[in-house]
Amino acid sequence: MPVADAMGIDSLETLKLFKALGMFLKFVLFHGHSTYDGISSLFPDEFHKNLRDLLSKIIVEKFGTWKSLAAKDSVSVPKLTEFDWRVDLKMASGKIARMSEPTCILHLKIHNPGVPENSEDRFQSLNVELSKEKLDTMLNGLGRIRDQLSAVAKK
């Protein structure tokens, strides 16, 4: 006899319970509620006290393990691990022998966390060539991003 039948609840109610508990655990992990008081305060006042205490204790005990598993399994964007740059001077030949155009060469090493540890594709090298105008545009955009992040961090 299934446990749900023995307890007098149907499968649909059991499924709803597990979904709700899963959503609650995701909320707790995402917001970093790792203390007993922090977790127990998330339950409604009319929630069964003994069940609230039991669930809060279990979540506090397992929080570190669940948090690391959630971080390991989460989808993440590639991350810049190394970069190098140099300035090259392109020299024209032929009729315009005196023309020169500086360019910036960026060498980026990118870590892709979605690729398995032992895969050769885990790290990707990317070379980007930028003219002075494109480099100025990129630096201006990065400066605006920095300012926005600073403004958000101050709030």
Provide a compact summary of the structure.
The protein has 155 residues and is α+β, with helices and mostly antiparallel strands. 51% of the residues lie in helices and 22% in strands.
Descriptive overview:
This is COMM domain-containing protein. It comes from Larinioides sclopetarius. The protein is α+β, with helices and mostly antiparallel strands. It contains 5 helices and 3 strands. It has helices at about 5, 10-30, 35-40, 50-75, 130-155, and strands spanning about 80-90, 100-110, 125-130. Strands 1-2-3 form a 3-stranded antiparallel beta sheet. A hairpin with an 8-residue loop joins β1 and β2. It is elongated. The model has no long low-confidence stretch (mean pLDDT about 85).
In N-to-C order, the SSE pattern is HHHHEEEH
Count of individual beta strands:
3
Structural class computed from helices and strand pairing: alpha+beta
Low-confidence stretches: none
**Cα-based radius of gyration, to the nearest Å:** 27 Å
End-to-end distance: 56 Å
Strand residue percentage: 15-25%
Count of alpha and pi helical runs? 5
Q: What profile does the largest beta sheet have?
A: 3 strands, antiparallel
The whole-number mean of residue pLDDT values reads: 85
Query: How would you write the strand order of the largest sheet?
Result: 1-2-3
Helix content percent band = 40-55%
Q: Note the overall shape.
A: elongated
Protein name: COMM domain-containing protein
